[in-house]
Amino acid sequence: MVMKKKSSSGRQKIPIEKIPNRSHLQVTFSKRRSGLFKKASELCTLCGVEIAIIVFSPAEKAFSFGHPEVESILDRYLTRNPPPRQESRAHQQLVEAHRNANVHEQNMKLTQILNQLEIEKKRGEGVRPN
């Protein structure tokens, strides 16, 4: 017995016009919004760009996507400041890592000294005459 394949309409081209049905409009917005954010993320990954997208739903709720952050990109756009050069970012990260390592080392030394001080205080309490 040969099974007939059910024919379908396949992927239909959707006319680009305002959707009159409010619930269909909301569903379409949600699906397209996630697709838009996904494409923006792919663009960031593939090309190493920084991007910010802000959209308002039909219910006037704001949604945003930004890489690295929407706020930093908007601030840079509004002030028209160019981004810092890549070399200076790498240098700054290296300096910050060194500073953090030094702070960690100093914290470890301080902890050891405080522990020794506590031990000496306890010894001193045991030696005192009554």
Can you lay out the helices and strands and say which pair or pack?
Blueprint: H1 22-47, E1 51-56, E2 62-67, H2 70-79, H3 86-127
Antiparallel strand pairs: 1-2
Describe what is shown at a glance.
Helix content is 60%, strand content 9%.
Q: Can you tell me about this structure?
A:
With 130 residues, the chain is mainly α. It folds into 2 domains: 21-83, 3-Layer(aba) Sandwich (SRF-like); 85-124. 60% of the residues lie in helices and 9% in strands. It has 3 helices and 2 strands; from the N terminus they run αββαα. The protein has helices at 22-47, 70-79, 86-127; strands spanning 51-56, 62-67. It has a two-stranded antiparallel ribbon. The protein is elongated. The N and C termini lie far apart (105 Å). 0% of the residues are buried. The model has no long low-confidence stretch (mean pLDDT 84).
The CATH topology of the largest domain turns out to be SRF-like
Identify the strand order in the major beta sheet: 1-2
The share of residues in extended strands comes to 5-15%
Q: What is the CA–CA distance across the termini?
A: 105 Å
Task: List the total number of helices.
Answer: 3
Q: What is the typical, i.e. mean, pLDDT? A: 84
CATH superfamily of the largest domain: Transcription factor, MADS-box
CATH class of the largest domain: Alpha Beta
Taking Cα atoms only, what radius of gyration do you get, to the nearest Å?
30 Å
Would you list the SSEs in sequence order as H and E? HEEHH
Major sheet summary line: 2 strands, antiparallel
